[in-house]
Amino acid sequence: MARIRFLVVLLALLMSACRSEVASSPPTVLPPTASPSPTPSPPAPFTLLFSSDRDGAGGVYALDAANGEPRLIFTDAAGVWDPTPSPDGRRLILTDYSRENGDLVLMTREGLLISRLTTHPADEYWPAWSPDGRWVAFVSERDDGQDLYLLDVPACLGGACRPQRLTADSPLWRHRYPAWSPDGTLVFAGLGHDGLEELYRLDVATGAMTPLTAWPFKASQPAVASDGTIAAIVWQEAPTYSLALIPPEGGTPRLLFTSAAWLGAPAWTPDGRAVLFTMWNGASHDIYLLPREGGVPQQLTTAWAWDDTPVAVSGGIAIPVERSAEPLPPPTRRVMWGANVADLSNAYLLHDLGFTWVKGFADWNRAEPEQGVFVWRDIENTVQAAERAGLRLLLRVHNTPEWARPAETPPNTPPTDMAHVADFMTTLATRYGVRVAAYEIWNEPNLAFEWGNQWPEPARYADMVRQAQQGLQRAQSDALLVAGAVAVSGDGSDLAVGDLDFLRAFYAAGARGTFDRLSTHPYGFGQPPQLPPEMGLGLRRAEEARALMEAMGDAETPMWLTEMGWVLDAPAWDLGEHEHGVVPRDVQARYWCDAIAFIDRAWPWAEAAFLFNLDFSVVPWYPAGEQMRWYALLNPDRSPRPAYSAIRRCMRE
Q1: What pTM was computed for the model?
Q2: Which of 286, 314, 342 delimits the end of a domain?
Q3: How far apart are CA 367 and CA 94, in angstroms?
Q4: Do both 309 and 417 map to the same domain?
Q5: Do both 287 and 151 map to the same domain?
Q6: Are residues 410 and 280 in the same domain?
Q7: What is the C-alpha to C-alpha distance for residues 593 and 596, in angstroms, rounded to an integer?
Q8: CA distances from 515 to 336, 412, 472 (A)
Q9: How far does the signal peptide extend, from start to end residue (predicted)?
Q10: Cα–Cα distance, 430 to 435 (Å, whole number)
Q11: In sequence order, what are the residues at sequence separation of 6 or more whose Cβ sits closer than 8 angstroms to the Cβ of residue 429?
Q12: Could you tell me the CATH number of the domain that includes residue 68?
């Protein structure tokens, strides 16, 4: 997209800067860091409720030991997640996405709808039921962020549902994962403006907040036992995460289990003897059980799926364990697939999808704030994240340092002297060598917005690419140089040069032979992928760009599609110029699968494709109404949207 903006807080949220090797196999589980009790007390029998996309879109399932096969309770084509039982176990609150946004719905344990508790067009999710069964706390984005709200369930059932905002006066940036304590206070994960996530206790009556954890530990996703003990996910340096216990009054976490794989969604068994949680095992997300004393987790679900948000309900004959499932089949597609990723800790999800590439960003403006003085932290984090995930890295180089561009101009203004591009590329490629597989030069240079708010100049862009090539040659780099990155813009406007006109002038300026791959951004603009482009806008506009390449004598150069996607309807927000192309969630899923099959079959010249985007919806630096969040494959509660589940399947067909 043309308006990617990374805020300063990204520094605090990205990976640590220590060097790691390329992963050749799925992340391994590290030994527990706490000494387990010699005789841990097993939990009493229970029935497991959890959410999963094993049958397509997200649904809620029940698993008991009697049959060993999960039973579907409720699902919808748009997905339902976060099953939260009432204290008596007779009712459930779910997060339902059937109206193109997350709403809280009240159902029976058998899946019969009782009432829709929230109807605001913004996303609302992560419900938590109070111990007395009267109140439900949840997270709402209706104020363009993540705030805690409270609703009175009996009042809602009586037709007087008026959610109360609990964090209107909070100094924190984001408020997430509410969990009730036995004393009626709320424990939640709060994200400060420094980017650090810690646990807090909120007095619902007074609004007073008390921190429960502190540096050097960061903590999230609390679950509170009947004795007040808090289970949470904690970490010091990502990507190593621990399941830990924290005293009710807060303090230093006691680590139960540490893993290099993603951990999340802790939940206590009813008797408080064990903790359920979700862990990625290298092929899928599954539910595990760990005794309160620590030890080796027991795997409870085994399907090729995203199983998540477990909860235990009293009853049953034993601990429920799913019978073994079929192994994950390998991807079958010819085209190399990747994705644009915002939070690098989510890069492992691309393995889930069957992708082998990730697209990251090298901000020259931040990397070389003074000529010859380099700050590599951001780029190093990106490179390390790709290595840890075992993915090949396409690094987009963009933004000019202040010293290299005209005064009083924005960072995406091209440099005054293009030779500086060669110098930076030499330094960059020398430093990273084979750790970066490809570099893409600039972003959508046919848009005035991306060319320093001035009219785009194809000839100057050709010079920029030529200088980048010289820089890579001086570094003796084998990395591919990707040029173009044009926005599909039809015949152009007063703010954009038409993409084909730009490429034609780019070639006319002598660009042929100065790059290894030509890229374009053929977004769907609300149309099915097989349809010819309307007014030059659509996925198949790439065919016209390919015809132009061949007419220019460049038929031997493969094409890369480095951004593409379909935007979802966002009922609460105005998506501006993206509004005319919105599609429902199930349609987005279908279009993605159709596009993957079509590109693989019909475009032999297409070598690689990168979807936009995986996870811009879950990072805190984008407000709820940001257009880029609505292209993402994840919901803001981090559950997979139907497109995610569909792509994982159709990449293997």
Answers
A1: 0.92
A2: 314
A3: 45
A4: no
A5: yes
A6: no
A7: 5
A8: 19, 21, 11
A9: 1-23
A10: 10
A11: 436, 439, 471, 472, 475, 477, 479
A12: 2.120.10.30
Q: CB neighbours (10 Å) of residue 545?
A: 20
Residues 131 and 58 in one domain: yes
Here the tokens at position 459 are 């000839």
pLDDT mean values, one per 10 residues, the chain (653 residues): 35 32 33 49 92 94 92 94 95 95 95 94 97 97 95 94 94 95 96 91 95 93 97 87 96 94 96 97 93 95 96 92 84 96 94 96 98 97 94 98 97 98 98 98 98 98 98 97 97 96 98 98 97 93 98 98 97 91 96 98 98 96 94 97 97 95
As beta bridge partners, residue 254 has 245
- In this structure, what DSSP letter does residue 544 have? H
User: What is the total count of domains within the chain?
Assistant: 2
Give the amino acid at 160.
A
18 assigned to some structural domain: no
412: domain CATH number is 3.20.20.80
User: Whole domain around residue 611: which residue ranges?
Assistant: 334-650
User: Is 284 found in the same domain as 360?
Assistant: no
Token pair belonging to 163: 């959610």
Q: How far is CA 379 from CA 363, 389, 480, 495, 618, in A?
A: 8, 16, 18, 31, 21
- Assigned domain for 245 exists: yes
Could you tell me if 436 and 584 lie in one domain?
A: yes
Which residue carries 């990502």 as its tokens?
Answer: 238
Give me the amino acid identity at 237.
Answer: E
List CB contacts of 100: < 8 A, sequence separation 6 or more.
78, 568, 569, 570, 571, 584, 585
* Three-state secondary structure call for residue 596: helix
Q: Are residues 299 and 384 in the same domain?
A: no
Three-state SS annotation for 445-491: CCEHHHCCCCCCCHHHHHHHHHHHHHHHHHCCCCCEEEEEEEECCCC
